[in-house]
Amino acid sequence: MTGEKNVVWKRLATKVVRAGEPEPRIAGAVVTPIFQSAMFEYGGESDYHDLQYIRLNNTPNHTTLHAKLAALENAEAALVTASGMAAISTTLLTFLSPGDHLLVQDCLYGGTHDLVTGDLPRLGIEFDFVAGDDSGAWEEKLRPTTKAFYFESMSNPLLQVPDLEAGIAFARAHGLLTMIDNTFPSPCNFRPAEHGIDLSLHSCTKYLNGHSDIVAGAVIGRRELVEEVRRKLNHLGGSLDPHACFLLDRGIKTLVVRMRQHNESAQRLAEFLSEHPGVKQVNYPGLASHPQHALTARLFDGFSGMLSFEPQGGIDATRRYFEKKRLPVSAPSLGGVETLATIPATTSHAGMSPQDRQRLGITDSLIRISVGIESSEDLIEDFDRALSP
Ligand SMILES: *Cc1c(COP(=O)(O)O)cnc(C)c1O
Questions:
Q1: How far apart are CA 201 and CA 79, in angstroms?
Q2: Strands 101-105 and 146-152, bridge-based pairing
Q3: Does the Cβ of 348 fall within 6 Å of ligand 1?
Q4: At the N or C end, where does the chain have fewer CB atoms within 10 A?
Q5: How confident is the model at residue 3, as a pLDDT?
Q6: Whether residue 159 has its Cβ less than 6 Å from ligand 1
Q7: Number of neighbouring beta carbons within 10 Å of residue 130
Q8: Region 4-252: CATH code
């Protein structure tokens, strides 16, 4: 789980390709082979957690990825997991015990929302939602039992960025552990460890793998904390299979070139949509009109490939768009090479009450786009045609 040998690779575009890869190469193989072996011969290990075994997250495919992911975020250590939810649930269960209290940003990823509101209370873990951009209201939710502050670096589907600097200062002042779901920006656009955030969590299913063909997760951050999560994961069993490790490593190698294209195309599309007569509202942090544009520009290296918009004409216009569009695939999830379109009110946020959706600003006609890496000209032409009368 170390990143030391990566210090020679300074720049992200080099790290995605080279960091963590075994040296010397295994039998000269340029690509790290798949170690499809559940267990490994004893090498003198005395601790259960050090025995080489797939569930113990320490085969060569795991350690390669751990070093690479730590290097990408300039963090001390990393751990891969069987899914993004395995990373999130295992991390919360590692650091929260019955009687503890969690401060958590509202407008969470649906799975995390259900975990926090449905599962944590059954374990005696209490929580309070707070608005990420309302730091003045955080203190009144603080309790003597508050252990951690949980954020998402870019919210779904409105692409809001919390007041991260205030959040980090607040957590430090009150001795809280900071955890952030960094899936939407990916390590290309934001690296939480550089800002002193303790743990960064990812659904590697999205940008990190980038090809919509595996489910995986990661925990990246301070070494002693990641080691605690690894021991919990070893017990809970949400380990990533070596073949999926191999695919994730392969996907990460093109992260920088993909993200460059995602960032660029989403910016172009957002600008186009914001001037289109068939569009009422566009949510994209790269637009000067976005409430956290300046904050995002200061802390992030890119605005991501995610945007959402509302056509003029409400739910009927949204339906018409879905009937007429050709390029974007109607499918959940995000972060792959192909452009995807969803209606959050009927998919990712269908589990939320209409009142809660209304309060957060997720209207029934809102369309979320994961901008892929197709030609942005083709994309823009398709949106223009589908949104025009
Ligand atoms: C998809 C997603 C998750 C869950 O990841 P899985 O890999 O599907 O388990 C968590 N957080 C965010 C922001 C996501 O987009």
A1: 10
A2: parallel
A3: no
A4: C
A5: 43
A6: no
A7: 24
A8: 3.40.640.10
99-127 confidence digits (pLDDT tens)? 999 999 998 999 999 999 999 999 999 99
| CATH 3.40.640.10 intervals, the chain | 4-252
Contact 181 CB / ligand 1 (< 6 Å): yes
* Residue 55 known to be catalytic: yes
Q: Determine the Cα–Cα distance for residues 276 and 388; give it in Å rounded to an integer.
A: 9
Which residue's CA is minimally distant from atom 2 of ligand 1?
203
321-376: pLDDT as tens digits: 999 999 999 999 999 999 999 999 998 888 788 888 888 889 999 999 999 999 99
For the question of residue 48 being annotated catalytic, the response is no
pLDDT computed for residue 249 by the predictor:
98
Task: Give yes or no for residue 6 having a pLDDT over 70.
Answer: no
Whether 62 is in the pocket of ligand 1, judged by its Cβ within 6 Å, is: no
Q: What is the pLDDT of residue 265?
A: 98
* Tens of pLDDT, residues 291-310: 999 999 999 999 999 999 99
Nearest CA residue ID for atom 7, ligand 1:
84
How far apart CA 366 and CA 368 sit, in angstroms, is 7
- 5 belongs to the catalytic site: no
Check residue 357 and give its pLDDT: 87
CATH of 255-387, picked from 3.90.1150.10, 3.40.1440.10, 3.40.50.300, 3.10.580.10, is: 3.90.1150.10
Q: Flag whether pLDDT at 2 surpasses 80.
A: no
As given in the structure block, the two tokens for residue 204 are 């590697």
Mark whether 357 is an active-site residue: no
Task: Assess whether the C-beta atom of 207 lies below 6 angstroms from ligand 1.
Answer: no
What is the C-alpha separation between 320 and 155, in angstroms, rounded? 26
Spatial separation of the C-alpha atoms in residues 210 and 216, rounded to whole Å: 11
Residue 141 to residues 58, 93, 168, 177, 376: CA-CA distances in angstroms? Answer: 40, 21, 16, 16, 44
Could you give the percent of the chain with pLDDT greater than 90? 92
Which residues belong to CATH 3.90.1150.10 in the chain? 255-387
